[in-house]
Amino acid sequence: MRNSAKILCNVLLGFCFLVLIQACATKTSEPSMSASNAPHALAAIDESTKLAYEGGTQPLTTTPVVGKPARQYPPVFVPGTETLEAGEMRVTILGSGDPFVKVSQASASVLVEVGNAERDIFFFDLGSGSLANFNGLKLPVASTTKVFLTHLHADHVGDMPTLVWSLAKAGRSVPVEVWGPAGATRELGTLAYAEHLLAAHAWDTASLQEHPSGRSGARMIATEVPYDKPAVVYERNGVTISSFPVKHILPGPVGYRVDYRGRSMVFTGDTMPTESTVEACRGGVDLLIHESFPSASVFAKKANVTFEQAEKVVNYSHTSPVMAAKIFKAAGARMSVLWHLVVDHETVGPAYQEVRSQFDGPVTIAQDLTVFNITKEAVVTRQAIIDPVAWPVMGK
Ligand SMILES: [Zn+2]
Ligand SMILES: [Zn+2]
Question: Which DSSP category does 260 fall into?
Answer without folding.
Answer: E
